[in-house]
Description:
Elements lengths: L7 H4 L13 E3 L4 H10 L9 E4 L5 E5 L1 H6 L6 H4 L7 E2 L4 H11 L3 E5 L5 E6 L17 H15 L3 H28 L1 H6 L3 H27 L6 H34 L2 H31 L4 H30 L1
Parallel strand pairs: 1-2, 4-5
Antiparallel strand pairs: 2-3, 5-6
Helix pairs in contact: 7-12, 9-10, 9-11, 9-12, 10-11, 11-12
Amino acid sequence: MSRGTVSEEHLQESVLGYIRTDVVTVKAHHTLETALQEIRKSQFEGRIVYFYVMDEEEKLIGVLPLRRLLLHNPQKKVQDVMIPKVIRLPDTATILDACDLFMMHRLLALPVVDENEKILGVLDVEIYTQEMSDLAHYEESEDVFQLIGVRLAHVRRAGLPVVFASRFPWLLCNVAGGLACAALAQLFQDTLDQLVVLALFIPIVLALAESVSIQSLTLTLQAQHEGPFRWQNFFKQLLRELPMGLLLGAACGGLVAIVAVLWQGETLLAGLLLASILISITTATMYGLLVPTGIRAFQRDPKVASGPIVLALTDLSTLFYYLGLASWVAGG
């Protein structure tokens, strides 16, 4: 691969075709002295080396920096001085996934593991700079990452028609969502005529739900940049976001309910606002997590598509909860 020739097709290739298998590994239960002896016996060709720590089942559990290997007491166990958190790639990752991790974490190599966390090989950052005969030709390793960034920018840079075509269709979600909200409001017209005060709080109910959905969406997109999709990470974020949605909903709903009582003097309205905001914000939080995750599963760019879809769904469901609860209360 020569400079400036990276294509989208190449970036979607599997990393398995580019890894090297001469991986230097050490055992977690070994002492540093024993580990160093094992490293000296190893034969490897790569110029960029990390020492990866394996457990008794040959699963990747950590990384041992050279500095720690040399400076700590030789009788200490590897597991006592290793870094347990390892940035890794699954065997399903693409070159683009690897490139994003290289730029984000400023690593010089990434281990590739299978579904059982057993290491398959190592992907060097040199894959992006094959025209270099040695990394020493660069004064600073930062140059490597700047090169990667320029290449990605070149691939992703496109003319106005292409950018328009990629962004406009998703905005139709907002148009459709707005029309659906208008139809929904018309459906509950009798309720609005009966309880005119409901209309006063529609903007704040929608604004709160939209804000929380965007917060959740932003956190989800940020988490996606930390590595390829894993169900384990997804469920961790789900268990974190769901209680947060309930807490934010209770706090915001309670605050608006207090304002409603002080302003309008209606406790029934306050209860309605509390319930609808609680449900709406919790639902919006889930949209912010589930929508980008689903879009990514279909190999689409969640950064472009997620926002309009999340906002459209949030507006529609929030208005439905608010007016639906009001209609139920009025009918009761």
